[in-house]
Amino acid sequence: MGFIMSEFDSIINYLGYESSNLYNFTISSFNREYKNNNVYLNKYSKEELKEIVKEFYRYFFSVNNVYTISKSNIHKNVADIGKIDNEKDFYKKIDSILEIKSPFDIDIKYNDSYELCGNIHKPMIYKDEFISSDNRKVYFSYIDLSKNINDLTLCCYSHEICHTQLESNIGYSKDYLNKEVITMFIEKLMALYLNPDLLNKVSFIREKSSYNYFLKLKGKLCYEEKINALMYIKSYILSNELFKTFLSDKRHDKYIYDIQSIFNGKITVDDYLDKYGIEKKIVLK
Asked: How many domains would you assign to the chain?
């Protein structure tokens, strides 16, 4: 099969999710519980953005270095990589153009998006016949963030840094629909770290987005759109329940310790949710 990049099912397989879990979640109603609040949003410089989020991670976690790749390196090497038919040599060539960096050294591109809207780019290079190879790695190119840098942008940046820590471990979650559970938890933890009043604002925004996805499910969506809508909704519901459980427990440290274990590739998101009975809690409601 020829050289390809970024088809949805291939990405699911490459990252180690089990495709059999894609339709294990349905939702017939959506109850909203948060109201918007007019919390003051502090403004920050680009330098302050990085430093404050670094301090947050230093306080709670030990951050692992990650693989990175530049777009220019991809463009210079992609044709030669595509000609390689041996699996070991294919991934060896890709490894040769990767760099190991702190996630805080990944380039940030600032745009006109909303402050809690970001993205981290993973330009995966693969062939279908090598899709499940033990030699494959996940690597990152750049992060998109809003140029309007305030408290919400800091929460967003903490969310994207979390993606680097999770997704560097292939198979960190068996269920693709749980993709955003820990990242949404982390942005709430960041909000609490910055200002307890900010927590409700972040919760309201994520709930509103989840509800909009719920409404979209009633219309006509393509396969990828439907899966991603379900993923966002399920991730939000689970992360919300997880954070409530975290707040109500006197032992906050064990939740942080176990997230660090996910970052280190010792347990999966699925293990974590099972340990605290999070999916069972939402089923019972």
From this structure: 1
